[in-house]
Design goal:
The chain is about 25% helix and about 20% strand. It has about 650 residues and is α/β, with parallel strands linked by helices. The strands form five sheets. Strands 1, 2, 3, 4, 5, 6, 7, 8, 9 and 10 form a ten-stranded mixed beta sheet that branches. Helix 14 packs across helix 16. The longest helix is centred in the last third of the chain and has 33 residues. The radius of gyration is 26 Å and the shape is globular. About 55% of the residues are buried.
Length: about 650
């Protein structure tokens, strides 16, 4: 008969530097126990009470130990993790507690080379791996990038003091009517505002503005948002005339966006964070991964996507991506996205209105990144309760119903979807980090890829061109990349950030890379991140705050605003529509094709069949069916990979 036991564990910092030690113990009968302590050189810290069972029937219960060591100074500063990568959970060393250990006080030790586990019943040890170099206050950087909102759209009406923002005296004029800024924006828009390169050109420089290939961007006066919204059809039909003023309507932040308001007021709100270029989603998202878009200055076409989505390949930068740089430096990273087992959103208020196509992450376009590299946010909070030796984590939302072009049922906060899902996602990501052992040395950046055509009052300044040499010519407009795009919301969260901080420092998406490079000793990828401001000066406190909220509250009750499911007749009408030549759905189809190619055996007949299936997609209905077919294959491959990881873990355990 099994008997419940416990032991008291301490751990010694066996380095010559001040350190933060995070220790974990877990087994299948008693779950996980963990603790985090600051330890001077040679100091012993704790205690941690661990629980286990002895006696009949406990022979197959294993005890796993893992440690994350953050050495802040001394001769070998850096972040170190115990090396056994294949335990259960991963990164854990199996060392079983026996009846001799019951009621004992046991002192472990950890240094930069060895994790020592001297149990009374037997001695175990594990080697340590340095996962990041440098004397950094931060061990874990998390980035959540959402969709298509300007800074003014979300924060001009927030009442937060110290920000540069629109007022109700600001207006745009179209067809003889002045459309003034107003509070209380609609939670979702019936049509998608234009945000392609030429749309943004009109929004910033006014109707009739032109850009000469290779030339200087026209003078920016922010006067063309209303005119462009009323007339542009790049993202779908123009709105009815009575809705033209919606482009100037800004959220009443405290009541409509309470989660983002809580994040902004408890940490740092950046009111001069710019999209990396005045254009759409894809090139701006490429900047957060490589401080460049390899010359891409608009939404990619089928032809451009076809150039990079071939087996073993993907979108390439002249100087590589941040993930390639991290891998070269031996720094682990991880991807998460909002996708449940059915590939619908976990956080939307109406996930049934979404589609599996919205679960395909945009970053999988990159070379060396595949859809199987992503983990579901369903497991994010629990993963952070165990060993998590990933200094960088990039998180993507669910993009909703991209096949139909309605974007409903997602968590990206696309203007045609409501904001509930995104607020819910932000709240969940924050709570997972805030209530984890890594909180005291974590940094979370929440930002948006571009402004989505929505009004902003501030003229973005000139920018430093990346100066790289792209491997392909993706430029459509001959843009020089010497101009930032429209301001977007950005919030920097850490217990080292003073509450209520407002930063007027200029940033763009390359600031994420500048921050990682400074923290972990990496070289800049391009001239853009070389010259970008990093966010580390915002982490100005000498020690972590003790007043950080454990949650950001709950989203406003917007469920009633969610659109009902389409009728069969409405769905059939949308399914019959031909696909556009570029834009979100074309990008998603390219990602799906790349995923299917990577899951194939790579034989010529397979590749030809995949290419033929992709080329046969002509309508939105075809796109929906194609997405369901490919994601069914992804589900099978994902489940097989996770099962293989579990089996490999059991085989790699050292008894």
């Amino acid at each position: 008969m099994a008997t419940q036991r416990s032991a008291t564990i301490y751990i010694t910092n066996a380095t010559d530097g001040n350190a933060q030690i995070t220790l974990f113990h877990t087994n299948s009968s008693n779950g996980a126990q963990g603790g985090t302590w600051s330890a001077a050189p040679g100091a012993t810290v704790g205690p941690l009470t661990v629980h286990f069972e002895t006696g009949f029937g406990t022979g197959f219960i294993s005890d796993y130990w893992s440690v994350i060591l953050h050495v802040k100074d001394g001769s070998a500063p850096g972040i170190y993790a115990s090396t056994a990568k294949f335990g259960d959970p991963p990164w854990s060393k199996e060392c079983q507690l026996q009846h001799q250990d019951a009621d004992q006080t046991i002192t472990l030790s950890v240094g930069t080379a060895t994790f020592d586990i001297p149990l009374v019943s037997g001695h175990c040890s594990d080697s340590m791996t340095r996962v990041a170099a440098g004397a950094t206050p931060i061990t874990n950087v998390f980035v959540l990038m959402l969709e298509n909102h300007s800074f003014d759209h979300f924060f001009a009406m927030s009442g937060i003091k110290g920000i540069t923002h629109a007022t109700t005296s600001d207006f745009n004029e179209y067809d003889g009517t002045q459309y003034f800024v107003q509070s209380s924006a609609p939670v979702s828009m019936a049509t998608d505002p234009g945000h392609e390169f030429e749309d943004v050109l009109e929004q910033l420089a006014g109707p009739g503005a032109t850009y000469q290939s290779g030339g200087t961007y026209p003078k920016i006066v922010n006067s063309g948002f209303a005119a462009n919204y009323a007339t542009s059809t790049t993202e779908g039909p123009a709105p009815p005339p009575e809705d033209n003023g919606e482009i100037m309507a800004l959220f009443a932040t405290p009541s409509q966006l309470p989660v983002l308001y809580a994040a902004a007021t408890n940490y740092a709100l950046c009111d001069h964070w710019y999209a990396s270029l005045p254009g759409p989603t894809w090139p701006n998202r490429f900047f957060v991964h490589g401080a460049s878009s390899s010359g891409l200055d608009d939404s990619p076409s089928n032809e451009q996507i076809g150039e990079w989505e071939v087996p073993g390949d993907g979108f390439e930068y002249g100087n590589g991506s941040i993930y390639q740089a991290l891998a070269k430096a031996g720094i682990p990273y991880r991807f998460y996205n909002d996708a449940g087992d059915d590939f619908l959103s976990l956080y939307s208020d109406d996930p049934q209105n979404g589609s599996v196509a919205g679960a395909i992450p945009q970053v999988t376009a990159l070379k060396d990144v595949t859809v199987l590299d992503f983990y579901s946010l369903r497991h994010f909070a629990s993963d952070l309760q165990g060993p998590y030796p990933y200094p960088y984590t990039f998180i993507e939302p669910h993009y909703g119903e991209v096949a139909n072009g309605t974007y409903a049922g997602g968590s990206s906060q696309h203007p045609m979807d409501d904001t509930y899902g995104g607020e819910n996602l932000v709240a969940a990501v924050y709570a997972a980090i805030r209530n984890s052992p890594y909180w005291s040395s974590s940094l979370l950046i929440i930002t948006y890829d571009e402004h989505g055509g929505l009004y902003d009052s501030y003229a973005p300044p000139a920018a430093v061109a990346p100066g790289d040499t792209p491997p392909h010519n993706y430029s459509k407009h001959g843009f020089t990349f010497e101009q930032y795009g429209v301001r977007v919301p950005a919030i920097v969260i850490s217990p080292l950030v003073p509450s209520g901080t407002v930063s007027n420092t200029p940033y763009d998406h390359s600031s994420v890379l500048a921050t990682l490079e400074k923290l972990f000793g990496l070289n800049p990828l391009t001239n853009r991140d070389k010259n970008a401001n990093d966010v580390l000066p915002l982490l100005s406190l000498g020690s972590p705050r003790t007043d950080c909220p454990t949650s950001l509250g709950t989203p406003a009750s917007l469920g009633a605003a969610a659109r009902p499911r389409l009728t069969d007749e409405e769905q059939a009408a949308i399914d019959a529509r031909p696909l556009p030549q570029s834009g979100t759905v074309i990008g998603a189809l390219g990602l799906l094709k790349k995923a299917e190619l990577e899951l194939s055996g790579g034989t010529p007949p397979e590749l030809a069949a995949i290419k033929a299936r992709h080329e046969s997609v002509k309508t939105r209905g075809d796109a929906r069916a194609y997405a369901e077919s490919v994601m069914a294959k992804v589900r099978v491959a994902r489940d097989a990979k996770r099962q293989a990881e579990r089996v490999l873990g059991k085989k790699k355990i050292v008894k």
